[in-house]
UniProtKB/TrEMBL annotation:
It is found in: Cytoplasm. This is Adenylate kinase. One of its GO terms (cellular component) is cytoplasm. It comes from Profundicola chukchiensis. Catalyzes the reversible transfer of the terminal phosphate group between ATP and AMP. Plays an important role in cellular energy homeostasis and in adenine nucleotide metabolism. Pathway: Purine metabolism; AMP biosynthesis via salvage pathway; AMP from ADP: step 1/1. The keyword Cell membrane does not apply. Transmembrane segments: none annotated. The gene is adk.
Length: 191
């Protein structure tokens, strides 16, 4: 089993690229965004709590996100591989993921692939997505810029966590979708 963290700011294409890797390798994508949407749609306690943060453009607290994720890892413990999309976003989450994987699977993160995209392109992509997503936090440029700022502020330390383990790889996230997928596959094939 491979455990891949797909990293990058909002609008960097993590979800699309994760799905391409799922299709190629028959792995399971664990997307915090999907988990949040499911829990919000079904009005779970965790979902309602997450929504109050998301609507303001803030990151959801670690303990809420980690609990949602743990339930998904347990459900998918027999998968060929797991792709973590949107998690971890803080050092505390990275450490929680390390512990969770050891506890549930007896394994660790194999590699962290970080999609690199300039801020102005991120804003443009998210505003475009907002035309159809129905998400409040995709429709306001101010909220989008705040999300990007929060992302950088809180996640720079995560890159240090994985760099110290020699697992951090930066991937150019600009170009045709297939080109970006090929860049990711090239790094995965080195494992």
């Amino acid at each position: 089993m491979k455990n891949i963290v797909l990293f990058g700011p909002p609008g960097s294409g993590k979800g699309t690229q994760a799905q391409n890797l799922v299709d190629k390798y028959d792995w399971v994508q664990l997307s915090t965004g999907d988990m949040f949407r499911f829990n919000i749609k079904n009005e779970t306690e965790l979902g309602q709590l997450a929504k109050t943060y998301m609507d303001k453009g803030h990151l959801v607290p670690d303990e809420v996100t980690t609990q949602m994720l743990k339930e998904e890892v347990i459900k998918n413990k027999d998968a060929k591989g797991l792709i973590f999309d949107g998690y971890p976003r803080t050092t505390a989450q990275a450490e929680a993921l390390d512990g969770l994987l050891k506890e549930v699977l007896g394994r660790e993160v194999d590699i962290c692939l970080s999609l690199m995209v300039e801020d102005e392109l991120l804003v443009e992509r998210i505003l475009e997505r907002g035309k159809t997503s129905g998400r409040v936090d995709d429709a306001s440029e101010e909220i989008i810029r705040n999300r990007i700022k929060e992302y950088y502020k809180k996640t720079d330390e995560v890159s240090q966590h994985y760099r110290s383990q020699e697992k951090w790889i930066e991937i150019d996230g600009v170009g045709e979708i297939e080109e970006i997928t090929n860049r990711l596959v090239e790094e995965i094939e080195k494992l």
